[in-house]
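Question thread 4412

I'm putting together a teaching handout and wanted feedback from people who do this every day. The idea is simple: show students a protein as raw sequence, then show them the structure tokens that encode its fold, then repeat with a second protein so they can compare. Below is the first pair exactly as I plan to print it.
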Amino acid sequence: MWNALKQQDGAVLFDELQDLGFETLELSRHLTPDQVEQLKPYLRENPPCSIHNFCPILPGTSQTEAEPDKISLSSLNTDERLEAVRRTVQTMELAVELEVPIVVLHLGKVDTYDRSYLMRDLYNYGEREFEAFDQKVTEATEWRKRKETRHQDAVLRSLDELNESALKMELCIAIENRPHYYQIPNFDEVGLFFEEFYGSPMRYWHDIGHAALQEKLGVCWADRWLEQYAEYLVGVNLHDLQGLEAYHPPGTGDLEWDELFEQIPSEVLKVLEIRPCEAEPVIEARDLCFNFTLRVNDVG
């Protein structure tokens, strides 16, 4: 994510990250097919730790359009949903080719009117603690509930197919918490999906910044996700928030990293997911996370 848009040569992209001191990479959903092909000779010797679906970007999609998804595993349109499943399986096949153990899934969204801007405006005006803020959060989540059941059913159908493929491929698929209240899964849906697919190769992928953003906007307390779903946790994305702006290097924003690191099990995969920026804060973020890991291992 850090340099996929600014460096179109996959070989140079890989060298830049190695020069920063990283030995293992995650493949982001911003990579083009050409970049993936250029990376393959290097990745066969240095297998990625994880890969985000969809990778590479979908045909007809530019790198800057990788978010949001053009097709969705939660779509009520059967053809679109099945195409999303097919493209996900292609990402899983790439993971098998490159010996990537984990494929991180974005499950889609509930098709409801997005009221996030109301919560953001109130937050930015300093009204986070007032009744009007809570009222807007309640209104938004209630509107979501009216439409979420059909989308949950669509996701269950998609996950049924993907879990079957993951089992055959001996892969782990991991569902990720998302930043917006209308996206899937919300806090309760994680439990719903694991209850439905208990014993499957599916796991939970926790994004620190997404959870913190939901807390800032009054949707869900950030620490609940890790407390409730620890038994399924396989990896975490690490990035900081500056106000409501995500994907900054850890240590450059609002989050309390000493407290956050205490909540993260030492054995799970930790991935820095950082927007394009200068190299120095990325190196400092790497050292911050690495030094915490050393402290935990020393205590253990």
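The second pair follows. I'd like the answer to focus on this one:
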Amino acid sequence: MNNDPIHIIGGGLAGCEAAWQAAAAGATVVLHEMRPARGTDAHQTDRLAELVCSNSFRSDDWAYNAVGLLHAEMRRLGSLIMASADACQTPAGGALAVDREGFAETVTQKIGGHPGITIERGEIPAIPAAWDNVVVATGPLTSRALADSILRLTGQDTLSFFDAIAPIVHFETIDMSVAWKQSRYDKEGPAGDSAAYINCPMNREQYEAFIDAVLAGPKTEFKDWETVPYFDGCLPLEVMAERGRDTPRHGPMKPVGLTNPHNPLVKAHAIVQLRQDNALGTLWNMVGFQTKLKHAAQTEVFRTIPGLEKAVFARLGGLHRNTFIDSPKVLDNGLRLKARPSLRFAGQITGVEGYVESAALGLLAGRMAAADRAGRTLATPPLTTALGALVGHITGGHLEGEPKSFQPMNINYGLLPPIEAPKRDENGQRFGKAERGRAKKRLMSERALADLDAWIEAEAVQAPE
């Protein structure tokens, strides 16, 4: 192994995972993080892997959910991010959610305690030409100077979209004589709790008044960003309402799968859910309530929600800009910049959306960078795996001809090659459409894990301890 360091820029989830994987493979790593020397509009601490939006890693169901499958694949490869999330999980029904402070502290301690990793604080305004093995994992909040430097290297324009942050409420200020704890359809999650969410019910009049207030409330606007699109997976609440008054009621405020124990015979018109945000259970975030409402308006409007009339907010919502490169045009399937192959990219800056997806690309980039240092090439996982499908999406390796407009995307089964699902169950009974769809997902997940195991053996990949 060449002892020259691999330089990893960015101490978020992707950068930390890349550093961990590269160091575990025997490489010397320098992890560069600009905080606290230079802050961002979204971060609040100098910890590595700080979560600035949701505290949820989404579904942990490997058999029937694509992100749950990605969880399973990353665990098989010794993911630092997944191990830290598992250690810091909080109840969240079928999802994997974490205590955000405990999670960031765990990752920071693990990275700081690894003998093969050196952490250097300070902004990197441009990538030095002398660095011959680099992973850029600066995320959606890349500094302006470095973003300009990257643009010059790629020869492409930056693509951007808005991302928003949801408010967090102190539990003791929620009126539990109105609200109640229950997961949708009483589904248990990895933490084994079927009552992982706090639910605040609304009747039709309350909902209509709430939507009126959301639409009328003063918003934070950035005129020089007005042409930047929103990412559909993280729409601000008011943008959802602008698309149709019932849009929130069919999205994060849907009332299905929940029964109000205070009034079980009355069906709510809409329900606001809060998810536990820390291990102590003292903080709860408002699910799907990303917003660009001004802070005073947020306090006024959100206190009209039944059960939150006296809510005290630990954090109010916010808005920030995300940036990503046109990866299908500028990256190869080894995540290397075609114009400068010594540079790899990982995380949200590549055009994946979501904590897990970002960390997954960090995992691959770190392993590939370490393989380069050792004088060999690590093949990309098969497209039939969630990891391989993500690489295929961002590099255009799954497409024929010139890639079309490139937009951020979460992992989903649509990125994996199709598979023929059985038409009948083991008893010979014909599947309905929904049952066949579930059977198909299960087969795709089983194929993915089998193909990943074969790739691990063929590439002699060793998982970090």
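Top answer:
Good format. For the second protein you could add a caption like this: Residues 398-404 have pLDDT under 50 and may be disordered. The longest helix spans residues 433-458.
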